[in-house]
Amino acid sequence: MSPDRLIYMANQIGTFFRSQGHGKAVPGIAEHINKFWDPRMKRAIFAHLDAGGAGLEPDVREALISLQAASLPAAP
Fold this sequence. Notes:
The chain is mainly alpha-helical and 76 residues long.
């Protein structure tokens, strides 16, 4: 799936959660992506985020950063 399509989808999720306010939107976006996106989609959006994350809405960017940090293996 193209990065442009993933950006569009992630921002659509963000639009859905926006009315709940920042405090609920960010974890809601992260939870939705974690539950419903397959690992390839998550890897691709994280790679886009690591490359600067152009086009991602602020709440979506924050949700992806938190989700990416939670998915990193713990340091020994």
